[in-house]
Amino acid sequence: MADNRGTYPSQKRYPPELRERAVRLVFETIQQTGEQFGVITRVAHQLGVGTESLPGLGPAGRGRRRPASRRDQRGAPAHRGAGTRGPGVAPRQPDPQGGLGFLRAGAPPPPADIVSFIDAHRDQFGVEPICTVLKIAPSTYYARKQRPPSARTLRDAQLKVEIKRVWDANYQVYGARKLWRQLGREGIAVGRDRVARLMRALGIRGVVRGGKRRTTIPALGDQRPADLVNRDFTAPAPNRLWVADLTYVATWAGFCYAAFIIDAYSRAIVGWRIAQDPAR
User: Fold this and answer.
1) DSSP reduced 3-state for 251
2) Beta strands at 254-263 and 269-275: parallel, antiparallel or unpaired
């Protein structure tokens, strides 16, 4: 009996999540870069999957979009990454700065950030012109301003008062962990990560044991080495410009200092030296 193994190549099966991610990356790359050829091959190589495993995208390496179905022809989005947003709405095009939407971000920023941005610049440019640039409706902004605060926002405001009270009552030395435990002892249910986030919002922090070690002490006098490259640390070829840097590393035996000489072209370390005394 003849051995027919190898007549048909085995096809590797990939999880549906990986296949969906590959398809989404292909459409996002086409949308952001505008390229049509070679996108499938590049994305498949990055994810380590076969090009023929990307469903509905045509032959490998041709970079074609999948054929429009009857649902696609009606204007509904064929895929989340395809860039269409609904019937009769054209896909967003990359702006001249190389990004999509607000502040070169591929996805729109949170509504709270948009409202804060408009509030900061409305006196200078006006609400409607800013909304036109940000591609949002002015009614969205006004609805957001008139909407009552959420339950999470109200709860955060209450917790900030309690956190500040406990922090002041304990000589302003408690960190997030001790504040969280003290609030729990008082019957205030809150997560530790939430306490840390609200402490950052309040601008308070706990006291860290141990003093700060001063590692850089400027020499007396006004004499400083001249800036020979005018802060331009680029080089057209190797061994044209070398720069030196000095840093310190904490070890069990104490601090040691390391000096490096780096080639500005390749960022390769040309030479280095480690000593316990920075003067060496």
Assistant:
1) strand
2) antiparallel
**Three-state secondary-structure class, residue 261:** strand
Residue 40, classified by CB atoms within 10 Å of its CB into exposed (0-12), middle (13-18) or buried (19+), is buried
Residue 136 contacts residue 144 (beta carbons within 8 Å)? no
- Give the pTM: 0.39
Nearest to 185 by CA among 173, 208, 205, 169: 169
Residue-by-residue pLDDT tens, the chain, 280 positions? 444 444 444 455 667 777 677 777 777 777 777 666 667 777 777 766 666 655 544 433 343 444 444 444 444 444 444 444 434 434 444 343 333 344 444 567 778 888 889 999 899 889 998 888 888 889 989 988 888 888 999 999 999 999 999 999 999 999 999 999 999 999 999 999 999 999 999 999 998 877 777 767 776 766 777 888 888 888 888 899 999 888 888 888 888 888 989 998 888 889 998 888 766 6
User: Measured between alpha carbons, how far is residue 212 from residues 208, 209, 216, 249 in Å?
Assistant: 10, 9, 12, 14
